[in-house]
Amino acid sequence: MENKINISELIDYLYGDLTQLEKEAFEEKLRSNPDLRKEFEELSAARKGLSSMEDREIMDPFVFQAGYKNSLVNKTINRPRYMAARYMVAIAASLAIFFLAGYLTRATISFDDGSTRFSFGNSHSPEKPLSREEITGLIRNEVAGNNQALAGQLKASEASFRQVLNEHARMQEAEIRKLITSYTTAKNEEIDVFLAQLQKDNRNLVNEYMEQASARQQAYVQNLLVSFSDYLQQQRNQDLQRIQSSLVTLKESQDQQKLRTSEILTSIITTMNTQNN
Amino acid sequence: MITETLQEIAMMHIDGLVIRARNGDQKAFGKIMGLWFKRIYNFSNKYFGDHDLAMETTQKTFIAVYHNIRKLQDPAKFKTWIYKIAWNQCHEEERRINRKNWFSLFTSPEARNMPEYFMTPDKEMHVKEIGDLVSDILKTLPEEQKTIIILKEYEGLKFREIAEMLGISENTAKSRMYYALKSLRKSIEENNIDINSLLYGK
Q: Which of A50, A262, B56, B91 is deepest in the core (most CB within 10 A)?
């Protein structure tokens, strides 16, 4: 409850309406109450915004003076006195214009059989209405006439359409013939020259291809031979290594054999010596 | 500045002029009009944000003052009395505009609440200016909040005078002022108006 904002006090402080003591007490509250401070800052900001709107300067009014008929107040004060007369004159003038326009245009208003008619010029009484059969006959005649006219129009359109189509077909045929004729009259000499040139080009092309193909083949065979001799050399090296290793193995087995033989001999000699003793 | 001060002094000592005008002295009335015309015009202009409407309301106010000055018993209350007449005229004019706009099928609801002046291209060109924006915001406030802001901030009336003029208690007047300023602050924020670029006072 202590934090509840006293609107009246806040507004008074905002507009400087507090006494010195009240002001100091309120400022103490401002320091200790952040909510109150926030409220105050918001209201101050709003007032700051209002300060951007200034008074507009206007010309001094035409000050009322006795005797000046055209002063602002005089003009308006006198207005009501003449207002009724002005309205009456306006209504009378409108009515006069209305009647004059009616007279000039010979406007008539008539009420007949429960209907109201407003007309200009000479008024004609409506003719006797047609019977149902008469109206049906009129419609039928009108429709038959329309149908006949439409059929005639359709026929004429069809004939003209066919004529246009035929004309177009003839024109296209003539064009195609003209084109074919122009192609067949080309000179034979030009064809020979063209053929000779074509043959020459073909020959050159084949020669060039053959040269390139033989060069590629030579290079391929050369590579193949080099690869084959490399292969042979590699094979021979491998064979030599195998023979060498076989010889080493044989020698080792001979050495072992020798060692075993000498051991046996030594054993026999030892045995013989023992027996002799 | 000196002229304003003299005018303010004259406005403070208006009692004599009021008494004379009340006795039918038209020169005295002319002087009263000279002294108060600008204030009443600016009150109306801030109320409507429209020069033509403000001029019309101001003229009507002085006509009403002329017709009724004899009824003013206490000349000391002339200030609140004339503002009350001006406020009533503004009120009446606003009602007339609303009635007129009610019949207009092609007017948008927003446009019905604001005078045509705000719709002109000329206005659109200047609407970015902060003063005009604040004026626009002021127009959107409820009528009683707008009136209290104008009377307090621009016309410098005391809360006692405002309360007397509007027929409310002083505390209600302060409460309305508080909520008016809160609404204004909210609208200023919503419209991204940079208040810090403004200076206090004039």
A: A50
